[in-house]
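Comment thread on ticket #2218

A.B. wrote:
> Attaching the input chain for the structure job we discussed in standup.
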Amino acid sequence: MPLEIGLWRVDGQPAKLGTSMMPLESRLEELLETDPSMLGLAVLLIGRQVSTAHGKFIDLLGIDAEGTLHVLELKRDRTSRDVVAQVLDYGSWVRNLANEEVRAIYDDYARRQGRAEGFDRAFAEWFGATPPESLNTSHTLTVVASELDAATERIVTYLATEHQVPVNVLFFRYFEDEGRSYLARTWLMDEAKAANPAAGSPGRSKKEAWNGQDWYVAFGEEPAGRSWEDARRYGFVSAGGGDFYSRTLRTLPIGARVFVHIPQSGYVGVGTVTAEARPYPEVFLTTGGVTRRMAELDLAGTYVHADAPQDGQDRREWVVQVEWLATVPRAQALWKLGMFANQNSACRLRSGFSIDEATRYFKLDS
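C.D. wrote:
> Ran it. Output below, let me know if you need it in another format.
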């Protein structure tokens, strides 16, 4: 049956807000371009209205920290089945883009926006890391819609789950309440059920398949900064000090299994995400059966960053609550040659070797 999103006002008697025709649908592309975090994905947009070799135009094209391309196509006034067919056609074109073509798409996009920085600099500023050697080793396809008919939802689910087509639907619903406007967002399928990103064209290096569950988290323990012992004791991971430090951490979904790595040390814990990321002052943690504001706890570390230039970056510390399955002190960290490490605060963990070694070390299979 068609997906339904509900929203209630609960400051008195519960009152369900009615959905409205989205006057923003014609502006949604612009809104997503202005703030890609609305997607719930850590992506750098590299193109808008990207011309394909078949005379069509992709609404938005993005890339994530691993080099996966993300095709985003708005439903607009087309029928649901037409837009699904269109996004599949885009996938057939995107899969063959080479590194230099991806970079050229970004260069054209930046030029039209009046920006001079090249792809490598934009990537580094957005993700805090250099681009992977091979771009577009995989891609995903996302239809952005306010609604789909039931038959089309069945088709998308069937393609993704039975035939591993990397297609999903991102729903936005529009609500109005006492002069205020709201957008609610949800996915047709969660990442564990949706297909892995499709590999690129034959001859390209291909990533290990992602199991839909496991994530890598870099916990940057620093003198006079965040403390791993705090994280172990109270159940959290965190990152902050600038957008490229916290942006990927803020995409961790509830239910994700995270393998936590302290740079220059090794893997120190595995746990399950229990809440979405929130800024440090807004976080409440439960310990000993008592829930308290994080800022009021007995913390060894510091989670407030010094004032910085007003450059528009979010420098707050962002905190993700975790229920630990197993942890060790930093001095007992696991590290073996060949294990995965990355500069991003969070990314999908595809390294079967790292997962297997950590599973044994932390006795997760028992």
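A.B. wrote:
> Thanks. Noting for the ticket: Residues 214-361 form a domain with the ph1033 like fold fold (CATH 3.10.590).
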